[in-house]
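**User:** Here is a favour to ask of a fellow structure person. Please take any protein you like and set down a full record of it. No explanation is needed for now; the record alone will do.

**Assistant:**
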Amino acid sequence: MCSPKTNQRKNMKRIYRLGLFIILINFLTSCNGQTKQEPNETKRTKQVGGGCEGCELMYVEMPKNISSEHTSIGWTEGKQKLILTGKVFQIDGKAPASDVVIYYWHTDENGLYSSDNQTPKQAKEHGKLRGWVKTDKSGNYTIQTSRPAAYPNDNIPQHIHLSIKEPDIANEYYADLYFDDDPLYLKHKKKYGKLDRAGTELLRVVLDGNIQIAEHNIVLGLNIPDYPSKNKTDIQSGLNIGEDQPSFMPFHAFGPDKGKRTCPVCIYGRYHGIVYFVGDNPNWDEIKKWLKQLDNESVIREKYLKAYFVYGNSKKYNKQTRQTELEKIGKELGLQKIALTFVPSFSDTESEANLNKINAGVENTFIIYRHRTIVDKYVNLKPTEKNFKLIAEILDRTKGNYFDLNEPKHE
């Protein structure tokens, strides 16, 4: 028989063990709770665009009133004058975006972020060639500055940094722009890829006397990580407005390059181009109406428009049969300038037709480009008088102010 003291000791041990058990349960529950909260914490702190080293310096001495035009000291002091100009669009690539602040900074003609006594101490790492523009009601912006040089003793090509701040996005995000005539760019692209943040990353300059002009449109959110999603209800086919029309090699059955494999944008990329894709569901009555209309438009606009028909029906594909079929149609319609071409399918990698990302199941896809960059596109467009006028209006509207100027001669 146990003594009262023995029972007391046993009770104390039970209480002690029970207390340890309760503490352990609370600890485990607390740990599980923290584990469940971590994704939410990450989600709350995630930045649109993935963050940007140095972009916060856009706020150093940022003016209260910002114009849609800005001129840097490089315009008067630099060796090569450069105008960077264009429009800013919403994610659809069609609706203009107003009140968007674009901060830019770049190197001088020696490839350095040089500063002067006017450069704020906190922003010296960006140098003196920096500034801001704010898009007007039509989304326009213009920057007059100097062309940057590549970093000395480095393989990074000439570039301009942009930091983009939208009115309804909490943080800014970056986009870097390069020059397509810079010999360092291709190696850079091969190593890092082509990011095309907020539109193509390539600037293609034209000449107005001794001034280089780069027209560059910005598409908000395009290829920007964690950008607020907007529901897409339209059928998807083709690359996005703002991206570059890719190079690919279709077979030419009829037209100026008959019997060859010629890349559309490689030879005819300077001005406007229309690439009319038809896949596995051809409606030949409608196709013929479009071919005649596009050919007429090409004749009227002469060298300023090149139109292509690209047939990518993968069903019962035979090269000779396809070539004969398209050649017959070209002669039947009396086509003069449009090129009738074909590929085995739109997923074909040998011709690189797959780079166009065409949905072979839709009736058609129209890609309209200017200076190799896609400025508009349509899917399942019917051959009506209204749509014929629509195409003509788009070509007129997207010319820009420097459409007739020539490119510099490349070595």
